Amino acid sequence: MSQRVILVIYDIHDDDLRLKVAAFLKRSGFARIQKSAFSAPYTPALLSEVEAGLRRLLRERDRYDVQVYVMPRSSYEERIVMSRGYTPEEGEELLI
């Protein structure tokens, strides 16, 4: 089990681009943890793949904010989650 986690968060106004980013992250093995946030266990290969894939998708777009964090699993597990009425999309579960 990886001792680190990759967290990707984004604010993308373009609906088409936002859907493409979400689909790419899902295909790459990330789990949706919020509408615009995904997480996955860290591997150097996955981090490289995600950075390259996101850069391809975002190329020549003019308005977006995408942030990729690598953090210790312990920090991720110590997060405080406050949620009511929100469930992951059908068929999705948190992988961490």
From TrEMBL:
Protein name, as recorded: CRISPR-associated endoribonuclease Cas2
GO term, biological process aspect, one: maintenance of CRISPR repeat elements
Domain of life the protein comes from: Archaea
Q: State its Enzyme Commission number(s).
A: 3.1.-.-
The protein's job, in short, is: CRISPR (clustered regularly interspaced short palindromic repeat), is an adaptive immune system that provides protection against mobile genetic elements (viruses, transposable elements and conjugative plasmids). CRISPR clusters contain sequences complementary to antecedent mobile elements and target invading nucleic acids. CRISPR clusters are transcribed and processed into CRISPR RNA (crRNA). Functions as a ssRNA-specific endoribonuclease. Involved in the integration of spacer DNA into the CRISPR cassette.
Q: Which HAMAP family match?
A: Cas2
Q: Which UniProt keywords apply?
A: Antiviral defense, Endonuclease, Hydrolase, Magnesium, Metal-binding, Nuclease
Which family does the record assign? Belongs to the CRISPR-associated endoribonuclease Cas2 protein family.
Q: Does the keyword Metal-binding apply?
A: yes
Q: Pfam families under this entry? A: CRISPR_Cas2
Q: Does the keyword Transmembrane apply?
A: no
Q: Where along this sequence does the record place binding of Mg(2+)?
A: D11
Q: Which SUPFAM superfamilies match?
A: TTP0101/SSO1404-like
Q: The organism's lineage? A: Archaea, Thermoproteota, Thermoprotei, Thermofilales, Thermofilaceae
Which metal ions or organic cofactors does this protein require, according to UniProt? Mg(2+)
The entry lists its GO molecular-function terms as: hydrolase activity; metal ion binding; RNA endonuclease activity
What is the source species?
A: Thermofilum pendens
Listed under subunit, the entry gives:
Homodimer, forms a heterotetramer with a Cas1 homodimer.
